[in-house]
Design goal:
Helices cover 40% and strands 15% of the residues. It is an alpha+beta fold and 364 residues long. The protein folds into two domains: 169 residues, Deoxyribonuclease I, Chain A (4-Layer Sandwich); 105 residues, no CATH class.
């Protein structure tokens, strides 16, 4: 997506990925010969780059930090650095840890249990001194994506430098994006129980099919005829049946749903006297209709249950019993004392909770 040089010590590259883009910041910190002011100036510029990075991006900060993070920092900086690093931490190492902690970054190549030669990243010209001063950091949000056991230095790679190549294996397990397919239309097939609806449906579909028969089958492409046939059925079903209305209760009828729509419109006029009275009447009518519809539905279910039991249709009978008896159990979200006051503090719950439970069990 772009590469942006910040200075002679900082450069960023942004890679397009899905569903998160990847931002890599490469840094080269001043050596120990530079002053503390110059070090702070470098980290200030680095922090500005991090702050301008989109928060949803997978952020990787890597480079030569000229800082030593040691085993002694593992305890105080738990989760930021591991114990597979240098022996001791120097002053620049603590500055790097402060930066990593502030930005929720993890020094990945300090966690791998590798031998020393695969942890060292820099070698002195005489080949005697070896240190780990190059680090790869990643946001802790994506730390599980970094393969720690395969993140190490490669001393055998010939790159013509006193630094070794450091490699981190990253395997992202991201949420799968569901493809938006065409919306499936569900028609209200219950209307087909009405003979008048069936008659209207047949009359309209016959008229559309009559127009379809006028097409010359030899000159018209079969795909065009198929599309015309499907369109005739879909248009007829949409005009006559309409879309199926989603209901959570099986006994709710279209009449009750229409009353609910009317009540929703009257809710806007509740501030007026006439509107408030109409809203109240419609609300009462809905409650009466719901009660009667539920009673009728239960009676019908019981009749169907008796018929299935008498005909030894145990599978359908079991399903009917399950529909009649299954209820959602409420879940207790708070604990109350004997006076009914909610207990929110942990000490109060531990103190008064057991006595409240005992009183409830003895009551029942």
């Amino acid at each position: 997506m772009g590469c942006r040089p910040i200075s002679s010590r900082l450069i960023t590259i942004r890679l397009r990925a899905a569903p998160f883009n990847i931002t890599i910041i490469q840094g080269y910190a001043p050596t120990s010969s530079y002053t503390d002011e110059e070090i702070e100036d470098f980290y200030d510029h680095l922090q500005e780059v991090v702050d301008h990075t989109p928060r949803k991006d997978i952020l990787i900060v890597q480079g030569d930090w000229n800082a030593k993070v040691g085993e002694d920092a593992c305890k105080d900086w738990r989760g930021i650095c591991g114990r597979y690093s240098n022996k001791v931490t120097n002053e620049r190492g603590y500055r790097l840890l402060e930066f990593a902690s502030y930005n929720n970054l993890k020094l990945v190549n300090t966690f791998g249990p590798h031998k020393a030669s695969r942890r060292w990243t820099w070698h002195s010209p005489n080949g005697i001194t070896h240190n780990q001063i190059d680090y790869i950091m990643i946001r802790q949000r994506f730390q599980s994506s970094a393969n720690i056991t395969r993140t190490r230095s490669f001393p055998g790679a010939d790159i013509g430098s006193d630094h070794d190549l450091v490699l981190m294996t990253l395997r992202l397990k991201l949420k799968k994006i569901k493809k938006q397919g065409p919306t499936r239309m569900k028609f209200d097939l219950e209307k087909l129980r009405d003979p008048n609806v069936i008659e209207a449906f047949q009359a309209m579909i016959e008229g559309k099919f009559a127009a379809l028969n006028l097409l010359d089958s030899e000159e018209t492409d079969v795909n065009v005829m198929t599309d015309t046939f499907n369109s005739a059925i879909m248009e007829t079903a949409s005009d006559i049946l309409g879309n199926q209305r989603r209901v959570k209760k099986p006994w709710v009828s279209d009449d009750i749903l229409n009353l609910c729509d009317k009540r929703r419109e009257l809710k806007k006029k509740r501030n007026e006297t006439e509107g408030a009275n109409q809203y109240k009447l419609v609300n009462q009518e809905i409650k009466r209709g719901m009660r009667k519809a539920k009673e009728s539905w239960i009676e019908q279910q019981c009749q169907d249950l008796e018929e299935n039991l008498s005909s030894n249709n145990s599978k359908k009978a079991y399903r009917l019993v399950k529909d009649l008896t299954s209820t959602k159990q409420g879940r207790a979200t708070t604990i109350q004392d004997k006076e009914g006051n909610c207990l929110t503090e942990e000490q109060d719950i531990l103190k008064d909770g057991p006595s409240t439970v005992r009183s409830c069990t003895t009551t029942y």
